Amino acid sequence: MSSHRPHLLRQSAADDDDHSSVSSIIEPGGDMDPNSEQELTVTAEALYNRHVTSPRMATRSLSPRSPTASPSPPPQSPPSQSPHQPNLIAQMCINHQVGPSIPNIDSITTTSIRGSSLNTSSISGASMHTAVSASNTNATPASSDADSSDESNDDDLEKHADVSMTSSVQNHVFESGIRYHAYRAGKYPLPNDETEQARDDMKHAMTLGLMGEELFYAPVEERLATPGAQVLDLGTGTGIWAIELGDRYPTSTITGVDLSPIQPSFVPHNVSFYVDDFEEEWVDSDEKYDFIHMRYTLFAVYDPITLVNRIYRHLKPGAYFEAQELLYVPNSDDNTLTPSTPYALRDYINYMAAGLRVIGTDLHAILSLPDIMRQAGFVDVRVIKHKVPIGPWPRDDAPKAVGSLMKKAILEGLRGVSRKPLLALAWQPVQIEIFLMEVRQALMRSDLHAYFTLHVVVGKKPE
């Protein structure tokens, strides 16, 4: 284990019989003032800033947001030119502006690569469906040639259909002041607003801290270093994982897919993003990808068995699939949290799991993923587990930083994350708000040394 890339919480002992390994016991530190404003330590700030504050990713502060902030900030000017290619969807949604207006960009490209999608950067001609010029999006169709009027009308109808689809993709849906994706509206139960994007980036920094700065554990380094390697990131979110992978492997082609157009404005030349539903059938060729990755998305998948079989079909022989997902079951190693301990966070998770079951997904789907992968044909399926402290209670700086980010990510997301699952249980909004007060109080307790577990599941398609 190198000193400059330590696996902070990873167990060094051999794996057990079920091909899984788990991080060792985390030593707790001394008691902390639960109201202290110093919980986000310098180490946590450094961990966050190392991966989130960069020239490509929009700088997001760890300081609390103003409760009076508008859910739809006023539009700003597009960023200045950079050597990276433009992400067209993100340009259309600079600062997540809402509405059908489209910035003055050269072109907007729509494609049916996996359904009716919008390519946010360059795409090969084979995948091209149609292109719409931004200069034509607001034009009034007209023709002075009567002989060609029918043909012109057909062209205009097709053109306006494409523009309408483009507008629907870039728009968002607001419910009770919380912003959600508009494409396939309602399918993903969590928001896509600035708060949720900041949480995603916190979890990215947290995960790399846990994994010793590694973006993946699958042994695909040689494949990705080979020019032309193809990588697919399912549920890419802000695109931060795909962008960092593109920087590390500049000769690979990285494709990110998500229901929300929330990726940054400029991306590496080898990174593309699509707005699409990856649970729909793909029109990509079979055996196309060298590596398929999914992180913090499996809980929202309605049919994991079908998805895993589809992933298997589209991987090349010898290629890998990796899923990284938190198991939201709080535990402790020192009996500060027992099954009989009153703990509102645990109650909250149980209610969330019940609400997601009503919606049609499984909060704890990661537990069944290894067996689903084996049934699909994957071999060498392994599970690596990391303990994720809930709060800055550990003694050592590295797990303390991870715990600080985990706690903040939960606190900032409580209202938005809770809404749809708890409404699915027929809760009233006032009931949700009162209950969340108890959950916040539980998160502030320093006497409970609780942690979640990050599961990294890796499997190989046979040669």
Account of the 3D structure:
InterPro entries: SAM-dependent_MTases_sf (IPR029063). Pfam families: Methyltransf_23. The protein is α/β, with parallel strands linked by helices and 463 residues long. It has a single domain, classed as Rossmann fold. Helices cover 32% and strands 19% of the residues. The chain has helices spanning 42-52, 88-92, 149-170, 194-210, 221-225, 240-248, 304-314, 344-359, 369-376, 397-423, 429-443, and strands at residues 20-22, 85-86, 107-111, 117-119, 130-133, 172-175, 178-181, 230-234, 253-258, 266-267, 271-275, 289-295, 315-331, 379-389, 451-460. An 11-stranded mixed sheet has the order 1-14-15-13-12-8-9-11-4-3-5, with helices on both faces. A two-stranded antiparallel ribbon has the order 2-10. A two-stranded antiparallel sheet has the order 6-7. Strand 3 (107-111) and strand 4 (117-119) form a beta hairpin. Helix 10 (397-423) packs antiparallel against helix 11. Residues 1-17, 34-39, 54-154 and 156-165 have low confidence and may be disordered.
